[in-house]
Amino acid sequence: MPSLGADMDAGTVVEWRVHPGDAVHRGDVVAVIDTDKSDIDAEVFEDGVIGELLVGEGEKVPVGTPLATIVAASAAPATPEVTAPPPAAVPDTTPEAPPRRSRARGARGRVVSPVVRRLARARGVDTTALAGTGAGEVVTRHDVEVARPRALRPLVSPRARALAAREAVDAAALHGTGPNGAVIGADVLSARSAVEAVPTAPRPPRGDSMQQRIASLMERANREIPHYWVTRDIDFSRASSWLSAYNATRPPAERCVAAALLLTATARAAAAVAGFNGHYVDGAYRPADSVELGIVVVVREGGLLVPVLHDAATLTVAETMAQMGDVVRRARSGHLRSSEVAQPTISVSNLGDQGADEVLAVIYPPQVALVGFGRVRERPWAEGGLLGVRPVVTASLAGDHRVSDGHQASRLLAAIDDALQHPESLEEVTP
Amino acid sequence: MTAVREEAGAVDTTTYRDAMRDALRDALRDDERVFLMGEDVGRYGGCFAVSMGLLEEFGPERVRDTPLSESAFVGAGIGAALGGLRPIVEIMTVNFSLLALDQIMNNAATLLHMSGGQFNVPLVIRMTTGAGRQLAAQHSHSLEGWYTHIPGIKVLAPATIDDARGMLRPALDDPDPVLIFEHGSLYNASGPLTGEWRTCDIAHAAVRRPGDDVTLLTYGGTLGVTLDAAEALAQHGIDAEVVDLRVLRPLDDATIIDSVARTHRAVVVDEGWRTLSLAAEVSARIMEQAFWELDAPVERVCSAEVPMPYARHLEQAALPQPAAIVAAARRTVGRDG
């Protein structure tokens, strides 16, 4: 069961899209998962052939539970199982897929000294799978000592085993927080409470459950994140003119809306100004390499969804428009794919459609920033000593004071402003 | 003076050495059958000055210097005990006790059994143990664990001033041989004497610091470093419980298991050598009785398996230190990164 959001503890397999024996490729949709927020199309991350479906339709299981086995396409039928799909939250104690990827080396293979070989054998470490840090990439004793030995079976503490037996929980499928990633008693207890908290039948009305989850996430945000807010009025006249000219020459399907410009400008600004794109986890800020831009979408049944635009800083405005339209439509119809609800690194809330002038939002943990846009409205605007009426949008930034400050936040809003003053630049791919 | 103030119920500050001496004085005064004997316990006042002044106070019949023959004077103690007296035999240090091991193990520990229950041996043997004073490999070892192997005797390890003051009386009251191990590094320890010593027993372990995350089990000379480690662990957000075993034979399984069943993790700190140590026995009992409560393998922090070095830095390196205890405890909670 993949983790389809930081607040997801368990999910229900609504429908299998594959059967044992089906060949699958990375990215194929294999199942539909109900997360209480939405039905999500779960993708597979491996190429291979479906072996066995381990969880039946309608069954609710904790995150990390293997859903099915995949047999490597090239391997003999006797190949042991691997878990699938392996999401970010899969326990790292699950059996690994043999054969282990061995680093391609010269014909003679690598020289491993007798003492290292003996140590590796004693510790159950495969030296061919290690990156050597010695001279000439030779595997050293230290490399073996710090390597995690092959997990012959998932590490589950005696207490966790006893509790799991009592509570009828599959401990081996849980994410372990003990020594060497072992599943310990507390992991079993929290998995049990996660399942208990969400009874499988009757299925609760989705809106209520989602509302509860949003409530608990927002409570956590308000409890943990020292928020601050910065706003900036942005002259939208150049952007409006550019949009009119852009759309005038295109068929309706290819036309652009203001939101696409705002998202593109935000994604590029988030990539350019440090301190807003990433996660705050275990007491430290971890900047992300790419901008996974979350779009806050209101769902008709009530509640919110935050689908993601992948690597949004590299998208042109036209690409942003196309992808945004697609994911928002599918979010509202309940057909998001699992990779599209992966944890965003920064989110945007655009309440312009709802008529709000500005948005002072609460950050979705573990993210560290949320950019808000109000409606584009005509306002008196003074510039160069002259007063005029221009379309204006108020951009706001909710920041996490553990990570950034108002100075950086002002720079981020200035970068968004700058991009919107040069909308033609958003047509191009970023360097 | 000290005794007078204590009897008034006031908390007083004293040393481990003085507490031991006060306990001996009480015993000699309260029971005419009690006498103290050993090498240099009389005129010299004891190798570690524990019996200083007792010869003058009680005379040479009750405080007797003996020849340098552990086998002879321990044997004499066994005979006196069989004859109805209550001897307290002091052996200078634990390594010399090996010269009397035949008497302790083959006679004192077995006579009740071999006489078909006719002869108890109400003998108390005190000895100094442990390292930390640069006395090198012949005077620094911790061999308590060896004695805990022997059925028929009790083995005590007073680690606090109250236990130094209070354990002798119940040891003398016990009808069978009792060995008291006094860690040499503790004699100068000073601190408050609470009233606890008056109700001291020789049956139970003691929780010296309550905690929820990991149980640190220790005794004798390593109680101090273990408490230090617990404070350091608190800085890491790990709430360690410290259990002072106190009575090394018979072990108080109930207190040990109760604590581990709450914390689900255990580190045994033992100044003895690791192999076949008392720590090994404690670990085995946890495995036998609390296996299904464990969230991590039991860790042991013991002395390096070398004859105790003389050089101070080497001696300290060979002994259990707070950093090693902290590291072991962090491994049990999965926070060794």
Describe what you observe in this structure.
With 431 residues, chain A is α+β, with helices and mostly antiparallel strands. Chain A has 2 domains: 1-90, RNA polymerase II/Efflux pump adaptor protein, barrel-sandwich hybrid domain (OB fold (Dihydrolipoamide Acetyltransferase, E2P)), CATH 2.40.50; 209-427, Chloramphenicol acetyltransferase-like domain (Chloramphenicol Acetyltransferase). In chain A, 27% of the residues lie in helices and 22% in strands. Chain A contains 9 helices and 20 strands. Chain A has helices at residues 114-123, 141-146, 158-167, 185-197, 206-224, 237-248, 258-272, 317-333, 406-421, and strands at 10-16, 23-24, 29-34, 39-43, 48-53, 60-62, 68-71, 83-84, 227-235, 278-281, 284-287, 293-295, 297-298, 304-305, 308-309, 336-337, 346-350, 369-373, 377-383, 386-400. In chain A, helix 3 packs parallel to helix 4, helix 7 crosses helix 8 and helix 7 (258-272) packs across helix 9. Chain B has 2 domains: 2-199, Thiamin diphosphate (ThDP)-binding fold, Pyr/PP domains (Rossmann fold, 3-Layer(aba) Sandwich), CATH 3.40.50; 206-332, Rossmann fold. In chain B, helix 4 packs parallel to helix 6, helix 11 (223-235) packs across helix 15 and helix 12 crosses helix 13.
